[in-house]
Write a structure and sequence with these properties.
Blueprint lengths: L6 H8 L5 H11 L6 E2 L9 H14 L16 H14 L11 E4 L2 H12 L5 E6 L5 H7 L4 E6 L1 E2 L5 E2 L2 H13 L4 E7 L11 H14 L2 E5 L17 H11 L3 H4 E6 L12 E5 L2 H10 L7 H12 L1 H28 L4 E2 L7 E5 L7 H14 L2 E2 L1 E2 L11 E4 L5 H11 L4
Parallel strand pairs: 1-13, 3-4, 3-7, 7-8, 8-9
Antiparallel strand pairs: 2-10, 5-6, 9-10, 11-12, 12-15, 14-15
Helix pairs in contact: 3-12, 4-12, 5-6, 5-11, 13-15
């Protein structure tokens, strides 16, 4: 039967990233084995009950309308884009004022990011990505587009902070260009996945300015923007809030700065498939609008999400509640890891991850891989190893602390960290 596939189809079938098979295996196993705990998928379940209640209420008040049966503006219906811009202005941005005309909507940040890269980079071009980085970027950027990722190593300080330096960015850029490659963009995830750290405004500003000076696209993936922990000591600053300052220094800033956000993480709505791009670059927006047929979010989903955003009191209270629950989950899981003998844990300020080093001798990729597969297949726990995130350091693992009740997460970690 494989002979019926094209070369491209054969490539999709057999040449996926190494982590994909075991993760799918874990998801399939969970349907048959109640003991299987998947801490590998980024899902925020902490406020699902409240979100379900709200969306059910809204669905009752706003039944499906006939207009949803027809074609619509594929890059985002007007009502939803206006609600998104208003939410960003009221609940995130302190300097920048977003406008609905700058907003595009797609069926998830991943598909929208793939579309974005398709209009700014050609096959063989390079995207700089601070590493460790979100493992599925290899799907978003490489699988169909044939774009290459050049990792930019993050420094791990003695205080367990992840730090990005412009020097590291320049070194990665020079490495790619000396190899004859064209560098098209830098993809910057802030707050960061897998570490959960928030990069400082100074770091973002410096790297953004460097990209604009080099005429490289700076793509700010801010899918965890509203998931900062309550009482965090590290304030999150959106790239959009730094854009007005950069525009005063260079007219190119409007061309090369772009921000992504979505509903999967901050609202816990992975299944709704809502990704958002904010960009002042008219050519980028028009090119994406021409492709939006292929990545559009259903109109009825947009109508429902717009109604939710329009309830400003709910959105405000939801973000406060989510922030507190994220902090509490992180605190409990980190404390449990410490009680289990883990001493190396990256300081996180946002999101749903704990990035840590188990107290075992895992100093090679093979050792990481063997431990990872042993946990999944013998101890019914899925965690993701550092090598799938292109972390140059060995022995690190990422777990999601919000994918299931904290008690379940801690029990799974106790199994995972029992003597080998």
């Amino acid at each position: 039967m494989e002979g019926s596939l094209s070369k491209r189809g054969h490539h999709y079938l057999h040449e996926g990233p190494e982590w994909l098979g075991p993760l799918i295996e874990c998801i399939s196993k969970a349907g048959e084995n109640p003991d299987m705990v998947n801490l590998g998928v980024a899902e925020n379940c902490l406020c699902h009950a409240e979100m379900l209640e709200k969306l059910t209420q809204l669905r009752t008040q706003q039944p499906i309308v006939k207009s949803s049966f027809s074609y619509y503006q594929f890059e985002g219906i007007k009502r939803f884009r206006e609600a998104i811009a208003a939410t960003l202005n009221e609940a995130l941005l302190k300097v920048y004022v977003s406008d609905a005309s700058q907003v595009l909507v797609g069926n998830g940040v991943g598909p929208l990011l793939e579309a974005m890269v398709s209009v700014i980079a050609d096959a063989g071009d390079v995207i700089l990505v601070p590493a460790p980085y979100y493992h599925a970027f290899v799907l978003d950027l490489c699988r169909r587009l044939d774009v290459e990722i050049e990792p930019v190593p993050l420094e791990l300080t003695a205080d367990n902070d992840m730090v990005l330096t412009t020097e590291a960015v320049v070194a990665a850029y020079d490495k790619a260009t000396k190899a004859g490659k064209h560098v098209a963009a830098l993809l910057y995830t802030n707050p960061h996945n897998p570490s959960g750290c928030t990069f400082t405004a100074d770091t973002s500003r410096e790297v953004m300015k460097w990209c604009v000076d080099q005429k490289l696209h700076f793509i700010s993936d801010e899918i965890y923007a509203y998931s900062t922990y309550a009482d965090t000591t590290r304030e999150f600053v959106s790239a959009l809030d730094l854009l007005p300052e950069l525009k005063q220094q260079s007219e190119d800033a409007s061309t090369f700065i772009h921000m992504f956000w979505g509903f999967s993480k901050d609202f816990g709505l992975n299944g709704f498939r809502v990704g958002i791009l904010v960009s002042e670059n008219t050519a980028v927006r028009q090119a994406l609008a021409a492709l939006a047929y292929f990545f559009s979010t259903p109109a009825d989903v947009q109508e429902l999400c717009a109604a939710m955003l329009e309830d400003k009191a709910f959105v405000k209270s939801y973000f406060v509640m989510n922030s507190k629950r994220l902090r509490d989950a992180n605190t409990q899981v980190v404390s449990a890891l410490q009680e289990l003998g883990v001493t190396s844990i990256v300081n996180s300020h946002a999101g749903m991850f704990v990035y840590f080093k188990p107290p075992f001798d895992l100093d090679t990729v093979d050792a990481e891989r063997a431990y990872w597969l042993k946990l999944a297949r013998e101890r019914d726990v899925m965690m993701l190893p550092g090598f799938v995130f292109e972390d140059p350091r060995r022995g690190w693992f990422r777990i999601c602390s919000t994918a299931c009740p904290v008690e379940t997460t801690i029990a799974a970690l106790q199994r995972a960290l029992a003597p080998l």
